[in-house]
Amino acid sequence: MKNINSSIFGLFAFFALLIIFGFQISCSNDTKPKKPNVEEKTKEFKSNSNLKITLKDNYDVSKLKSVCDCYKASLDVLEKVSIERQQYSSKEIYEQNKESVKTVNTLIKSWKTVRTYCLMTYKRAMFMENDCYPIDIIEKKRDDLYKLGLDT
After folding, report:
1. Is residue 104 within 8 Å of residue 134, measured between CB atoms?
2. Nearest to residue 45, comparing CAs of 93, 105, 99?
3. DSSP helix/strand/coil, 45
4. In 3D, which of 127, 117, 134 has the Cα closest to residue 70?
5. Is 149 left (phi over 0), alpha (psi -120 to 50) or beta?
6. Are strands 42-46 and 52-56 parallel, antiparallel or unpaired?
7. Which has the closest alpha carbon to 82: 100, 65, 67?
């Protein structure tokens, strides 16, 4: 009886280890970072101002290591949006320039990527007092853009 029990236990342990090993292999293949060709994903725009904006289809969030980095990146992107939009005296004139509209839309997409990453990573810390920026500075910048006819 002991011989049968030890054989069943050994067989059970073998299959359990085999299943765990299989999960490890399948999960390790999914976690390897895919390196996109940066040259294909990066576009440079020279807007009507002297502002040279480098746009990426996917914003690189790897440099966002802290709440302060999140605030800085958000403000940088929103400031570029503001500069691009303020070149035009009205929303109608702005909307006629398709290149500027495309630039602003890509920048807003980048800002939304930063916002989502930071909120998911730092959660409540994004809404708490910090040593870098006042917590309402991004909302003020968004309000200014809204007054210019841009919804972020």
Report:
1. no
2. 99
3. strand
4. 117
5. left
6. antiparallel
7. 100
Question: DSSP assignment, residue 148?
Answer: T
Q: How many CB atoms lie within 10 A of CB 81?
A: 26
Name residue 135's amino acid.
I
Q: What is the pTM of this model?
A: 0.60
- Could you give the CA distance from residue 16 to residue 36 in angstroms, rounded to a whole number? 37
Task: Report the pLDDT value the prediction gives residue 51, as an integer from 0 to 100.
Answer: 47
**SS3 assignment, position 54:** strand
Residue 56's nearest CA partner among 72, 73, 71, 44 is 44
Alpha helices in the chain (DSSP H): 2-30, 38-41, 67-85, 91-96, 98-122, 137-147
The token pair at 52 is 């040279």
Q: Which two tokens stand for residue 50?
A: 């002297």
Average pLDDT, the chain: 76
Q: What is the DSSP string of 2-20?
A: HHHHHHHHHHHHHHHHHHH
